[in-house]
User: Fold these one by one.
Assistant:
Number 1:
Amino acid sequence: MAKSIVQEFTKGLWDEIPPFRLVLGLCPTLAVTKTVENGIGMGLATTFVLVCSNILVSALRNMIPSKVRIACFIVVIATFVTVVELLMQAYTYPLFLKLGIFIPLIVVNCIVLGRAEAFAFKNPIAPSLADGLGIGVGFTIALAALGAIRELFGAGTILGINVFGPSFQPFNFMVEAPGAFVCLGLMLAVMNLAKK
Amino acid sequence: MGDYIVLAISCIFVNNILLGQFLGNCPFLGTSKKMETAVGMAMAVVFVLVMAGVITWILNTYFLVPFGIEYLRTIGFILVIAALVQFVEMFLKKSIPALYAGLGIFLPLITTNCAVMGVCLINVNEEYTFIQALVTSFSYAVGFGLALILFAGVRERILLARVPKPLQDTSIGLVTAGMLALVFYAFKGMV
């Protein structure tokens, strides 16, 4: 039993890491990863919602009629998103402003709904928690990595610390919209290469 | 009138919802492999987005703000969108079966399309008037359809090309989307 919980956790870190293996949740991935800090903030907010909604959906799985399950999942998720929104507004206001509408949009992040439907609705609480945590941490790592690449080339910094020295010419393409798509596409290609 | 045209152009081209604002990218990549599905999805989005934009604006202005319960916005909006999609589906099935057959499976998918929810939130955050909200919702939806159909055309051609193995499918799709985004990026500064 203990072993399988570890497996549920670790599968989110490589085998099913979103948004690479599970191509879901692309919008926040592309939009907020201009910097590492934004990527990590978004990742952690999503992880919180993912873990809480997985636990609650799993706890209520025998009570929710399967016909209206999607509506129930959405209400559960929307509740936790509101919690995150209010918490971030209170404690990390600058980050809250930077992430903008992408915090309320966690509600329609297919990763969260996807895990509730595919995993939490069919499994007990402990594996659901591990699953949510694993996928969430995987998502955070992916966002941080993408943010690191874009910030490094687009602004010459990592977490705001200058890396290349003052004579560096920023490669603006990377922090703009087109760079986000190309960068994610190439990262996916590298991961496909590594899998073989 | 001129203001509305500028607003419309800025929503369709300059701040294109898919390629500039990064909203609704899951269906963008998911339904763009065939032209037919892309057109179906584009039509469904135009239909639902305009209705959702108007209804959430009314909900926000006449209900959430006067009662001081703006913190319920996220839950309220998503419930309105989910109910709307369900309602539209039932209505079309009964009264316009031809359109229902055309939109078919794309309607339920729209509930989790962040383009719809995103535009509703933008309308509220920017404090648009009713007409402005209507114009914005419609223009964003048209921009969504335009980008999706263009992208589907390009993707159908890519199927004929020899793509290196690691880059196949989603990967080359994203790189192509990047190139398309570069085209739309050229509109920046126009408005």
Number 2:
Amino acid sequence: MSVIAVRNIHKRFGNQDVLKGIDLSVAKGETVVLLGSSGSGKSTILRTLNLLDLPDEGDVFLHGNKLGQARPDGTRRYRGGELRNLRRRVGMVFQHFNLFPHLTVEENIMIGLRRVLNYSITQAREKARHHLDHVGLAEKALAFPDTLSGGQRQRVAIARALAMDPDVMLFDEATSALDPERVSEVLRTMRQLSQEGTTMVVVTHELGFAYNVADRVVFLHGGRILEQGTPTEILLHPTHAPTREFLHAHTEFRLPSA
Amino acid sequence: MRHIWDFSFLVHYLVPLGRGLMNTICLSGMVTVAGFTLGLLAAIASMSPLRTVRMASAAYVELLRNVPALVILFLFFYVIPVLTGFQNDRFLTACVAFSLYTSAYFCEILRGGFLAVDPGQWEGGQALGLSRAGIFCWIIAPQIIRAAMPSLANEAIEIVKISTVASTIAFPEFLYQTKIVSDIEYRPIETYTASAVVMTVLILALTWVSRIAARHFAGHRRKK
């Protein structure tokens, strides 16, 4: 059964149709990479999965259960408690980290444990330390986010999401705001999670990550899923012209492999 | 003409001057607390999804900010009692007038602090499953205070100075007592010099306290 799924999702911003009927289902332990040019709707899909953006049409399922209550006009209404319950089961990592600057690294991780999962301070600190160790930042527990590099901040953000023991992790262009030489440390952490069996949905422009880590690659174009399949199928043998153009644009200035 | 400086007469007026100083501190303290609270409510209203509530908040701020404190004080001391037949004592009148006046400034300071917080902070909290109230309390409010602390301290200092306007309705705050002493002794130079020194010391003490508070709210500020 799928951990998380969306069916026939439509989303408009103003008079612009961003998503035009998306079906996506993510199985336990699976790593799905969403690719597509900017404006293709890939970030919006991710934000729909934890209902940070509410869809105009369509359904969201967590462990097969449809979320929200039906309204007479056919749209769905989501209560605050249900949204919070969904979001604590779905971890999210943002492009700009969204760490809390007034809290130390460990307090950033503890706040969700304390205020959402009702851990005691001692339990929360212990868990925060464990997850910081997991992303290789145990020695930064008492530092403030603004003293860390971009890559370290993103790893703290990953630890913060992981500490909630989510059923699925969402990565929204997690490496796009980083200096090029910091990208790989975050990608390595993400690959490690994938290998440990974490269920992940990843929006990225890192084709190498998609090729080496993804179980499934989904290519979006104009608010629809154009094609999906194994990394080899989509990245090496795409069948649609937009996919080929996208891949060409992303690999045009590649170094020749030795 | 040479003025011969002599402050010695002031020792006879320590009690009334001390009482004036206490009144100034009480009035300023009350106005700071009430003005901050009203300003906070106005700031929250200015963020409302409802257009009418936002406009009401804007009207409130513009009205109070563009009228001199003295006019608001006279309105409450002379006009409102005539219209309503209800007369408060001078302390309460000054409290109400100055609280309203400074709440407009507090509102703008807090609104500015709110706008300075990255909207991504809300999403960061939401993604963890925190409630909106929880996000506000644990994540947004501390950052507003941190961003707004220097301006808030500045406004508290401003309030101490504004409180002297209450001397115009014969509320016995520090400046009013000073004026009486000066009139009795015919020694305005020494009296006002001494009162300026006392006010400066009071405000320096306030600045010192606000620095400690700012450091506290900055979350043990560190070196980069």
Number 3:
Amino acid sequence: MALLELENVQTSYGAIRALKGISLTVEQGEIVTLIGSNGAGKSTTLKTISGLLRPSAGEIRLGGQRIDQLPPHRVTELGIGHVPEGRRIFPRLTVAENLEMGAYTLSEKNAVADGIERSFKLFPRLRERAKQLGGTLSGGEQQMLAMARTLMMKPKILMMDEPSMGLAPILVEQIFEIIAQLNQTGVTILLVEQNALKALDVAHRGYVIQTGEIALDGPAAALRADPSVRLAYLGEI
Amino acid sequence: MNAIKKGLKSALSWPAHRFAQLLTAERTALVTALLVTVLASAYQVAAPASGLAILCTLGAALALSYAGIKPWLRVVLMTFLLLGVLPYAGTLNPGVSSLMIQMFIYIALALGLNLVVGFAGLLDLGYIAFFAGGAYVYSIFASSQAAKFLPWFAANAPQGLGGWWFWAALPLALLVAAFMGIALGLPVMRMRGDYLAIVTLGFGEVIQVIARNLDTPINITGGAPGIAPIQAPTLFGMDMGQPTSLYYIGLVFVVLTAIAMYRIEHSRVGRALAAMREDDIAARAMGVPLVKMKLLAFATGASFSGGMGMLFAVKQHFINPDTFGFMESIGILAMIILGGLGSIRGVIVGAAAVTLLRFQFLPDLSALSANWGLPSAIDLTKYQPLIFGLILIVMMIYRQDGLIPATRRKENIAALEGPLPVPAGGTGTSVAK
Amino acid sequence: MEEGLRILPQILISGLVIGFLYAVVALGYTMVYGVLEFINFAHSEIFMFGAFIGFEVLMFLQKTSLLTTLPMVISLILTMLAAMIFSGALGWTVERLAYRPLRGAPRLVPLISAIGVSFFLQDAARIIWEALRGNWQLAVPPLYTGVLTMGPWQVAGAPLQLQVPYGAIVIMVSGLIMMFSLIWFVNKTKVGKAMRAVAQDRSTAALMGVNVDRIISTTFVIGGALGGAAGSLFAIRYTSITPYIGFILGVKAFTAAVFGGIGNLAGAVIGGLLLGIFEALGTAYLGPLTHGALKGPEYKDIFAFLILILVLVFKPAGLLGRTVGEKV
């Protein structure tokens, strides 16, 4: 049984159908990437999984349990961590408080302290910034904080929405290294990216989404080699 | 009975080919329209003091406005109801005219507030202040009040200027109210919607405080007791102060206001206001001068309020600061919310319904409950704030567009603006801020 | 002038007392505004209900003659506690019934609903107490009615004495306790942090596992409880209450919240205190300054309004606030 399954999921904004029946699976321990152009429905897919949007049809299952009618905080409690597009750091909470928010669902006594310590090990920059307000961080630091914050909740699956967006190339490299590194420690990852090349390099499998439908799917390497993908998303001929 | 005879007579004297045309058009609509008109008229004349009769007559007028009949026939039948049946019932029972004048005042006020709230999307909670402005401007000069601080009046017109001066004062009242609107509007137009609401609310309170206290050091407003008696207007030498004759002035005011509103809605200004209400940033990008447009709507709405204030002063023969409280502003807001923000027909219906409720049905029910020996704590006339509050809450939760929604809003917005499937998140749309 | 200066300390004290009430009520406005960006118009009526519940508790204590036998501070705590519980529950109910169904609607919609709630509650209180007590204007049983006299000191060759009613001291002390508790709660507890997170970014807070609806409810309960406490303190200090005490005080407390910077707790406190002091100064000195032409107390309610306009025109962000302009 796959860890996360989407079966014919449809989501609409008012009269506009953004997802026209998405089916995909993520297995335990995998990195799966969802690539596609602007407005194809990548973010909508993640928001629908995490409960920010409610699907009008279809099923979403986490470890076999239906989650598609749950409010977002319940989905989070069940183990889906969603790093939203544009990082969405709480601008007027300190870095440490932002991290604490990530551990909101955990009740163990040391969850916060341990989690913060782990985060600082993974992202040493954050340690220096611990007392600073989230809004004062640079884009790269905010991305690190956003990832660290979601990791605080020890999610069963980590969903990332465009983690490389708006970052300098050197930071992009770093972010993808960290993604690979996280995966090696056993974190399952669903990655949404416009930077298809990088995403396919790091992922095991991929899905190509086009105007709300899955157009192609397969092992990352196969997609990487597919001529239509290369033409449309990798800028190669 | 005369009115019916007159109506029938005029109906029979129409050219025959017209009749033929009518009958070939929409026969059921025609029959229904005529039947409704005749029945309502008969009931109204038979029981002039009954609130139910007035409700039927107004209901008939509303039905006519929907009926699929020739426009000229619609005008004729409505004219018959409004210029024939109701004034006639008023001669049988002056209460009818009095109620109708009150209703006309509220309809015009509601139409004016609708321009501000419904068309321009500015929540004005101090609308009654402009009404007070118009009422005071006229009352001060049409009573012995002016003589108390202006020597000229003391010497030449100790009882103030009444009569035809009413017509001269009308533009003045409109101007004063518009000026008040601009004076308040200039500093607040750039504020976001909810701040504007609370500032206008404060403005309403301030105007009331000033009216109550400007009897010292110079006695301008008459202080808490107010001003009385206020002289009646004349028209070509006729005394227009009686309810039966004021009825016509009120009706003319309402018709003019409604026409003005219709023209504004379908003008460039109206479209600019609609654009601004739906998305002010996009409207600004399209070259709509936001502040100017808002100010224009605000001041125009204010001036309507001022004009009706004059009529109110004439109807009441006296005014005092308590008449212009916050509850009046909310009452008018309840009218336009009930009828439908931005919908002219809806606003008229809402204003008529609330007026009937306040001044006819609640007092009727109170009298009834007093007859049954119920304690005065259940005096329904006192429950007006409760009822206004309920109207606002219930309409907002169950029917935001009102009983008769504006048609225009629906056209292109509803499709895109449907409820987003966001259970907890979402920051809300920026519409009508 | 000399005489004017001599009454200054006394004026400052009375301004400070009413300022504390404004501040506590302003906290309720500012909390809700911070979380929902919405003026909870009904908050003034929640304050008013607090006053009436406080009145009922005091009446009960008086009837059972506990008022004279219990230590005063116990009576005070009972009164405030009852008012806080009731008003907190009322705040919760109002949010649940009249605001939550409208979440995500255009801004004016919940605002109009809130105005409706305000009117409804005001009239409901009138109806209830008219039925209960035969009158809606009520005299509150005495608690802390004494006056603390300080001085006299010799100042500029004449004795100066200060009169501070115990009721005023009660307001200031409990006001301070409530303010600091709230600021501690919001900054240091898990729920408080979640509240701030919801205020800053509702959907991301939900992604962190925060039950946004519950946090919003909590905000209304706490804001309502503070309003209720302020209402009961008002009843104790000013000894006469009507269903209409909330309206103007609410507008002023909201002004205080805007003055200090809406959404900012410390700002609400500072705004409330300053507004109280300005108002007391204006009320006391308008008459003398205009040589008696204008009566200060009559124009009292205008000062807050003038401050509101001036703040909104010249410094819409308030003293401590960040800019909350239209989003572009």
